[in-house]
């Protein structure tokens, strides 16, 4: 691998990059998304409990981000790589993967909007649920790096990354904030210190860099799996949006006027539109 220096900035030449270096870059981006989970604890450094209204907005924001990313980011890319049938197969497998993963913690109602009497089982199961959810998110990050070193992209810290990878990395990082919040609520109520909660939140996201590396290695070494892989990531994220995040938002707004539907819709719209704007901005930068 060699590097070029332009205007005092050191750029990495990806054309001669080794697989180990590529995997390292993917791992670092996946780790950044995992660290973003810790940001979900930030509100509790200011207040002891977050109002239900803001919880609903945050769940709506995450819902909009997931829907937009899966439908317009990953599905769109998948259709450019293969047949619709391949994309559908991948999506079905992705949905099945998350469903079966959730069965591991079956019987636990995923509704971390309020905790009056928290027991250790609730704490453990909440962390377990969010840790399992990190796996498909990490896979989405890894698959998005498939064009690393081949197509023009967006320069980040001297490394030219695929535009799709930048988009997915930003999307998953933002998405991880309400996931970190979901973990923080029962842990804070259980009496755990805020910094320990940050540690547990980040721990729940650690499958993301691992999943990202595994997914990238898979798609970069095997031929003809791109469409299926993108479909898998899209199906998994879409399932999370509809089956997990939407019910969590609805449950959090039960005590609000009109059951919190205006707040949920507003958050969803903001997340959906903001994600589309991020896509447009990154694609514009990537073509400069």
UniProtKB/TrEMBL annotation:
<feature type="transmembrane region" description="Helical">
    <location>
        <begin position="197"/>
        <end position="219"/>
    </location>
</feature>
<keyword id="KW-0472">Membrane</keyword>
<feature type="transmembrane region" description="Helical">
    <location>
        <begin position="82"/>
        <end position="101"/>
    </location>
</feature>
<feature type="transmembrane region" description="Helical">
    <location>
        <begin position="225"/>
        <end position="243"/>
    </location>
</feature>
<protein>
    <submittedName>
        <fullName>Zinc transporter, ZIP family</fullName>
    </submittedName>
</protein>
<feature type="transmembrane region" description="Helical">
    <location>
        <begin position="23"/>
        <end position="47"/>
    </location>
</feature>
<keyword id="KW-1133">Transmembrane helix</keyword>
<keyword id="KW-0812">Transmembrane</keyword>
<feature type="transmembrane region" description="Helical">
    <location>
        <begin position="264"/>
        <end position="282"/>
    </location>
</feature>
<feature type="transmembrane region" description="Helical">
    <location>
        <begin position="122"/>
        <end position="146"/>
    </location>
</feature>
<dbReference type="InterPro" id="IPR003689">
    <property type="entry name" value="ZIP"/>
</dbReference>
<dbReference type="Pfam" id="PF02535">
    <property type="entry name" value="Zip"/>
</dbReference>
<feature type="transmembrane region" description="Helical">
    <location>
        <begin position="54"/>
        <end position="76"/>
    </location>
</feature>
<dbReference type="GO" id="GO:0005385">
    <property type="term" value="F:zinc ion transmembrane transporter activity"/>
</dbReference>
<dbReference type="GO" id="GO:0016020">
    <property type="term" value="C:membrane"/>
</dbReference>
């Amino acid at each position: 691998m060699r590097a070029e220096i332009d205007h005092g900035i050191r750029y990495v030449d990806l054309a001669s990059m080794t697989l180990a270096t590529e995997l390292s870059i993917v791992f670092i981006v996946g780790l950044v998304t995992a660290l973003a989970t810790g940001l979900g604890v930030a509100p509790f450094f200011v207040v002891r409990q977050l109002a239900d209204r803001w919880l609903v907005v945050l769940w709506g924001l995450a819902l909009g981000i997931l829907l937009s990313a899966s439908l317009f980011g990953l599905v769109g890319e998948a259709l450019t790589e293969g047949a619709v049938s391949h994309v559908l197969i991948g999506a079905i497998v992705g949905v099945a993967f998350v469903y079966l993963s959730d069965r591991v913690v079956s019987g636990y109602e995923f509704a971390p909007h309020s905790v009056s009497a928290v027991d250790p089982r609730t704490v453990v199961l909440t962390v377990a649920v969010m840790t399992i959810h990190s796996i498909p998110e990490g896979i989405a990050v890894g698959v998005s790096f498939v064009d690393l070193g081949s197509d023009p992209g967006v320069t980040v810290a001297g490394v030219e990354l695929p535009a799709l990878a930048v988009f997915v990395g930003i999307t998953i990082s933002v998405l991880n904030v309400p996931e970190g919040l979901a973990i923080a609520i029962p842990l804070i109520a259980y009496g755990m210190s805020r910094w320990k909660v940050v540690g547990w939140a980040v721990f729940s996201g650690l499958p993301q860099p691992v999943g990202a590396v595994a997914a990238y290695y898979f798609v970069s070494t095997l031929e003809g799996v791109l469409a299926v892989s993108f479909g898998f990531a899209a199906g998994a994220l879409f399932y999370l949006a509809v089956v997990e995040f939407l019910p969590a938002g609805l449950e959090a707004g039960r005590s609000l006027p009109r059951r919190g539907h205006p707040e949920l819709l507003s958050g969803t719209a903001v997340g959906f539109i903001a994600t589309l704007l991020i896509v447009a901005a990154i694609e514009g930068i990537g073509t400069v």
